[in-house]
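Sample A.
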Amino acid sequence: MNIMIFDATPHWSGGANRILLYSKELQKRGHKITVCCLPKSGLSIRLPEQNIPCYTINPKSDTNILIIPKLIQLIVQNNIDVIEICSPKFYWVASLAGRLTNKKVILTRNVPYRKKGLKKYINTMLYNKLVDRVVAVSDKIKRELKEDFNIPDKKITVIYDGIELLRFSNQATHNDVKPQQFVVAVISRLDEHKGLECFINAIPEILQKISPILFMIVGTGSIEQKLKEQTKKLNLSDSVIFTGFRTDIPEILSRVDITIMPSPEEGMSMSALESMASAKPVVATSGSGLADIITNNQSGIIVMPDNSHQLAEGVITLLQSDYKQVGREARKIIEKNFALHHVVTQYESVVKNLTTQNHL
């Protein structure tokens, strides 16, 4: 099967990681994967290292019809059977190119893009006229798609992000923190709307109940300096470490006790899934897709979004419990539903069914 994936993520993200993992696994299974992504993006750097063909294209916007001939040329040149579109900037141009070349089109939704008014009406046309199948990475996103765009249930398939289980197994415990010191991490892009200010505001309340404790903020982004200033203003510099962007996430997770996913709105956090795969329980918000897979107080903690008090209480409750057992329950969820070989098999089935329909 020849599959072309379109993505316009400029930075490294959970969505970009999903494309890399799926592409590697599909390539192992004998499929030909070709990716169109932005110049100088994380994917444009990592894909060639895995011998996965990659074209760098910047569509500028999803309505730039001038780029459609180029996309058609790539689809024909690579003898593509199915195209998958993972980013809004490619939604219209790539789906139109797919229609003009008579190829099946999959649109994958990694994060919620809820629309209102005219935009909602226009996107309803996209989903119902130009797309053959919609893949949602969480049950939450599927519910929102059905509600917002009146997409038939049978047209949407939930396929979770895949986790390489072996990368997050049998980790050694590092001894570079103080004895008896708890370590709590947030692994995220440091951007607006990720709930990071709320997390920092929760730290003083946590420190009143749990001590000693070290907080790690792993990642980089547009509000990194703002968050550092907030930390200093609250006199938290001795308790919070900013690590910057890291690629050694399994090693980072081996050093922590629990992680926090404070985003008020999230499809399905890859970093949270990796934490659960490492048997490190997560405190997440009810605005994320994690609320559908975590059993509260059993395999993690779910709190209300944008509420620093509840977030603090969630962390305190988890650390005062048998959080290692909670982590083991979290790992079971990943093993059952998120193993890479399992979710890629689901994806293969969707692609096969689409191409079979194409030849009937």
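Sample B, a different protein:
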Amino acid sequence: MNTSETIERLAASIAEEVYIDIAKWHLYLNDAHLHTPLAEKFYPLLVDPIDQKIVTEVLSNIKVEVGGGRREIPLIDLIPTQAQSNLLEVLQKNRR
């Protein structure tokens, strides 16, 4: 399997399991078009064991534009703890 196929498979797994929470409304990352960029960020890291600290660091460094670009919020602030745990599980299952 080539790199782009692997990233697509990882993105699909992320899309099924990870969501942002806005006013108790769950928006899965594929609906927000964030699953592929997130997979691209994590893919190079999957050669080593991955833990919550790495997940937190990556999510903290991804900024999401809200309000038509009037503001940027770190993705870590939008993904609830349970969805972060789901993300960690997905990443651990997809280690290379």
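Observation for Sample B: The beta strands are 19-22, 25-28, 63-66, 71-74.
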